[in-house]
Amino acid sequence: MTRLIEQQLRARAHDLLAGGAVDLFLGYRQGSSPLRVAPFVARAPAEAEKLVWNPLCVPNLAGALRKHAGRRVGLALKACDARSVAELLRLRQLAREQFYIVGVVCHGMADPAQVAASVSGPVSGLVEDGAELLISAGDEVARRRLPALLLAKCAACASPTPELYDELLGEALPAAGAPPADRFAAVRSFEALDPSARLAFWREQFSRCTLCYACQTVCPLCFCKQCPLTLARDDPRRQTREPVSVFAYHLMRAYHLADHCTGCDECERVCPEDIPLSLIYRKLELERQEPQA
Questions:
Q1: Residue 95 above 50 pLDDT?
Q2: What pLDDT was estimated at residue 139?
């Protein structure tokens, strides 16, 4: 299925660029290894052949759009990315007429870490075969079911079909109507802990935070030109990583995103210390759905 979508995507990007409908087309290209897919900007029709679409097209492309202000941009969006773009449009950070959106129906993206852990040895190749992945590692070709390797956000996705697009690739899938119960399973499990245990958990997690601000950089909804939460590189509080500075940063960032976060989980994906930041933002999502009396 993704192979057909990839061919259709390349053809549409080629035609949009060749016809002058867009100045550039934003999608994905194969990265430096079979488990790496990176954002890619095609600026000429011939470059459309470099575009890929597979179960590892994880990065949210919405965050790159402000870099191309004033240009006519074509782009491929899965449903979670489209939700981020819709929020940016709502906040008047983007102009809808600037974009030609090719929505892509998404059956879920694989977690590269889980794919790597499912075989012995470095992954040298990856091929999709229906609902399965054929993973090459050394002399072994392992067959693994894609649903078992999905990112947590994909396994609990309620709306796999983009709602914002100019044209749609793939057969639309019905929305679940409500988030699956397991979308908030981790939150409810955490809420069952007593306050001291919760505080101890976050103290341990944030003790690893280096204030690298990767979560802020990748977030499509962190768009302030000057963020009051960001400490300069030579600021002693950043160098010593004072607990109060770390807690204040994450607390205030969550406060700022409380009604904007679309649950793309990019912050957690790029965190070099594997801090479960999605737990914070899933909690905020749950609070929006179940306001306190």
A1: yes
A2: 87
Taking only the tens place, the pLDDT of each residue in 108-121 is 999 999 999 999 98
Residue 251, number of CB atoms within 10 A of its CB: 14
Two structure tokens written together for 187: 């939150």
Cα 112 versus chain centre, distance: 13
Backbone angles phi, psi at 283, to 5 degrees: -60, -45
Q: Please give the backbone phi and psi of residue 277, each rounded to the nearest 5 degrees, phi first.
A: -65, -25
Tokens for 153? 């956000």
Cα–Cα distance between 244 and 196 in angstroms, integer? 17
**Locate tokens 């992945």: which residue?**
133
Name the nearest CA neighbour of 78 among 105, 99, 107, 109: 105
Burial class (CB in 10 A: 0-12, 13-18, 19+), 194: exposed
Lowest mean pLDDT among 30-34, 226-230, 240-244: 226-230
Hunting for tokens 């059956």 — which residue is that? 107
CA distance 223 to 201: 29
Q: What is the pLDDT of residues 187-203, one digit of tens each?
A: 999 999 999 999 999 99
